[in-house]
Amino acid sequence: MPYQPYSITSRAKQIVKETALRSSNIHADFLEIQNGSLEQVGAFIEQQIAAASSGQKHLVEQPIFNKIELFNTQQMNEFATGSMARCFGPEFLVFEGRRYPRIPNGDLMLMSRVLEINGKRGKFDSESSIVVEYDVPDKAWFFRDSGYNSLPYSVMMEIALQPCGFLSAYLGTSLIIPNIDFYFRNLDGTGKVFADPDLRGKTIKCAATLRSTIISDDTIIQKFTFELTCRGEKFYQGSSIFGFFSPEAMAKQVGLDSGKPVLSRYEKGNNSGSSGEWIELNRKLRPEALSAGANRLPQGQMKFLDRVYLEINSKDGRGDFIYATRVNDPQAWFYTCHFHMDPVMPGSLGVEAILEALKVYTQKKGYGSRFKSPKFGLAVDRSMDWKYRGQILPTHQGMKLEIIITDVLEEKGRILVSGNASLWADTVRIYEIKQATISISEGD
Fold first, then answer.
1. How many Å apart are CA 75 and CA 81, to the nearest integer?
2. pTM of this prediction?
3. Pairing of strands 307-311, 383-388
4. Do 258 and 340 touch, CB atoms closer than 8 A?
5. Based on the domain organization, do 363 and 276 belong to the same domain?
6. Which range marks the domain in which residue 382 is found?
7. What is the pLDDT of residues 163-209, one digit of tens each?
8. Based on the domain organization, do 292 and 428 belong to the same domain?
9. Which of 134, 151, 186, 315 is least enclosed by beta carbons within 10 angstroms?
10. Are 205 and 135 a contacting pair, CB within 8 Å?
């Protein structure tokens, strides 16, 4: 594997020298935070030894603490918006005052604790792994605004992918070339849904593994696999590729089409003879779309579209066309959450916008009318692939997307609607999603 041990540059040495006192203070803070977990472990061991010494037949089965946390919420908040050194230790002081790859914060930080890390800092020639838990709030904002109790696909993606970023940071990927202010971006991925459990008020466990690290000039590429479980039941599994890019490498991003502006099918014009129909999502919608039922359209923080154009030409749905737009708001809620000092719309929310457009389509087609109490949910036993070759920044004017319906299937008491999609930042096509799928079934 093309990995070379990192060396501290003259700039880094100067930073460390000038901040020696601050280093001492941060090191003390780091040790104090870590000490809480160590005290829990020590107390439990002492209790077990005392039980064994007294001749008890069984050691204490219930520890005096709930869980041993390698990293807690306080430390993750430091990594998200504060000091990387206070989370990972003083060797990360080289990044103080600089922009560096972080995890999401606020409503988009979907990790509660790190339970386990297997890997050695600075070692990238073998696999490393992490186990993270997320305590799902019973009345989370994403349940409130999606209108149903299934975990939104974008939230599921974030729960699976954020531990990958944490593990990469812990291992010191940025320290490989410490003089570069890296950007950290998701590039590709695939995920398969195995179950659609009710996760309200429950704890999700993510187990992620770093499979490979490739270093080339000022770019670092890492591949991960991940699995989400709840109470031992696997419900999501997949793999994803991330990249660390220098500012110069990021500036060379040209989208999916070698930098050429590519028109959507709607913009090219259509010779099918169908005039299509525009639905304005910012206006008062049909009563059934705004109902309190589990198949209503997303609102609030889960709403990512302004207008949707539908072109329906077939009875079975195949070949039907969806086009949708959003005017970019530089003050949108997710920019402050993703990331601190590096605002960018999460790719997962672009995927959610595509699924939102599919929901508008199903409303128009009337698929929900086949059920007494229809609900949207995860598409169990279906895989989705994503490819990102660009980003939506606060400086962009707008986002647009298109979907070609590939399948509408009715099976096992549900209707599955699938399509292949592309998404643009202004005139550049940056995302490609294969087999984006939503499920409609009978509600509770």
1. 10
2. 0.86
3. unpaired
4. no
5. yes
6. 265-442
7. 999 999 999 999 999 999 999 999 999 999 999 999 999 999 999 99
8. yes
9. 315
10. no
